[in-house]
Amino acid sequence: MRRRIGIPRGLLFYKYFILWREFLEGLGFEVLISPPTTKEILFEGVRNCVDEACFAVKVFCGHVAYLKDKVDYLFIPRYASIEKKGFLCAKFWGLPDIIRNTFPDAPVILSPNIDCNRQSLFKAYLFFALELKKPFFKILRSWQSAQNKQKEFELLMEEEKFNPLEAMGLTERNRISRRDSPSIRIALLSHPYNIYDSVASQDILKRLEDMGAEVSTVEMVSKNRLKKEFGDFRNIYWTYDRELAGAAQHLLKEGIDGIIFVVSFPCGPDSLIIDYLTRLISDRLPVLNLVIDEHQSEVGILTRLEAFIEIVRRRKK
Ligand code: SF4
After folding, report:
1. What CATH class has 172-316?
2. 3-class secondary structure for 196-235?
């Protein structure tokens, strides 16, 4: 019988789910993902997680609470870095430990150590699977297939402008209807787990599209383009915040009409970088900073979005 492994729908799920699922299924696991965030999942996350954690980690804990009694293992990789001389937020380094301490009754947590400052991505996944006593050729085949699928997934976002959920096939692909007749272009800049989780974000993405905006996100800018735009941002310590700055720079050149930053309270890296970017950009076009947490009200977010879109439209006229 195939062993069941759970992947919580939070944090890096929105970047690497395709790679993880293909690799784990290739190794013989049955993969179960938690459903899209609901109010109950959110409540469980907030109830179980330590107060000091950021909102995104609390949401992740809610997904773990949903999965933990339904699977044999949980898959929670430890991501320290995905490139040489670049680092991820400390929460990703400590995530397996946070979950072990938050849920002592959780099933075994399987965590490959992803640290590209020490070893390649392939080696990290190879050693992980060898520890599980999987045959070498099976690991190799699974890895190649996982990489190919991940590449396809990234191209769908970078070239076809699908969002991660559409590119994963987890929601209907609607790029064409979205681009019918946008009157304004808005850059919605944040980590994917902040904006593609409709409950956690109060559906900001869809609300903007309903208001007639064409929305661009970091995922829709190619990796090569991002690198070319790093310039002054090259020294930003956190890889994903550097990408955020590169995307802002690129989308500014493409002629967007406004930028919305979404920050998960109390995110350390974003509170520095978003403030820095806002100071750089705010005299060139309208900028809105939205902070999301478990206390936010739907009306509050909606009012701010409506006011912002109104400012953008007037300024464009
Ligand atoms: S980058 Fe910010 S929002 Fe993301 S996990 Fe780290 S602290 Fe949380």
Report:
1. alpha beta
2. CCCCCCCCHHHHHHHCCEEEECHHHCCHHHHHHHCHHHHH
